[in-house]
Amino acid sequence: MPETVLVTGGSGYVAGWCIVELLQRGCHVRTTVRSRDKEEAVTAAVATQVDTADRLGFAVADLTADDGWDAAVKGVDHVLHVASPLGGNVDGNADAMIAPARDGALRVLRAACGAGVRRVVMTSAANTASPSSYATEGTTDETLWTDPDDPTLIPYRRSKTLAERAAWDFMAAHDGPTELTTVLPGAVFGPILAPGTTGSVDIVRRMLTGTMRGVPRIGLEIVDVRDLADIHLRAMTSPRAAGERFLATGEFTWMLDMARALREELGEAGRRVSTRQIPDLAVRFAARFLDPSLRDITPALGRRNRHSTAKAHRILEWQPRPARETVVDCGRSLVAHGAV
């Protein structure tokens, strides 16, 4: 019998591609949405890639509430916990992001363990395995944990670290059959399924529309959303993946090189992309006096430290595609969907 997999947060960018990959491999999929009015949009987005037939179902559940999770996991074999709250530090209250991420992960795990789900694969982030100080050089792997008590951490980074730690602590105290694996992606780009599910690719959209009039000296470890969906499924099915963390970062690429790739490959659609490098001093000045939202990116200026994906290659035989291909496919997809 085909396996049934629950994917949390079905309206999200990464979750949508996980659903596509699962359906393409013959699985039945149930996905959570916060309200029934999102079902049609999710179905339409997924249907652009694969026939949903009768193999895609929905459950209403929210990370901030207990209701609905027991019903969501009933009868499923595996869970891909991809959903995570987005947003920032609301009125100085970091808990606005931290509590939903941590408590939401625990709600999913409690329900999954109670239902006897075989394995939960949880999407974390590469910045939960990074030096807290944003070291400018060096390579780290899954053995490193970001210090959540570092006062310089932005709320998103702290929320992902605390949520993953809480998940591992919960599983350490659980003696049932359910297993946990975590996937730690880098910067996620690639094709979109629908204009309303752009996720992290807004950077590319802003480049293409010309609203990003210059690029800061920031490097990203770019992973294609299709490759990220693939590693989730590998982590779900590999016997050796149980109880493991897997970094899922791709090729290190400066934002300037992203801009150049879009200009060179997209023709007329890329004409508004700026390839002007913004000096670090100008970014820091703007963050301090003009645009406080830039403060979150200033620690990353000039940073070159990388994450090793040797473990994912060795255990899961995972190999991401080149970053340039991902960026260009992302741009073409945004144009094709009328998102720019």
TrEMBL record:
Signal peptide: none annotated. It comes from the Bacteria. Keywords: Oxidoreductase. GO terms for molecular function: oxidoreductase activity, acting on the CH-OH group of donors, NAD or NADP as acceptor. Pfam families: Epimerase (PF01370). Residues 5-242 form the NAD-dependent epimerase/dehydratase domain. Gene3D superfamilies: NAD(P)-binding Rossmann-like Domain. Residues 128-143 have a biased composition (Polar residues). InterPro entries: Epimerase_deHydtase, NAD(P)-bd_dom_sf, NAD(P)_dehydrat-like. Residues 128-150 are annotated as: Disordered. Belongs to the NAD(P)-dependent epimerase/dehydratase family. Dihydroflavonol-4-reductase subfamily. This is NAD-dependent epimerase/dehydratase family protein. The lineage of its organism: Bacteria, Bacillati, Actinomycetota, Actinomycetes, Kitasatosporales.
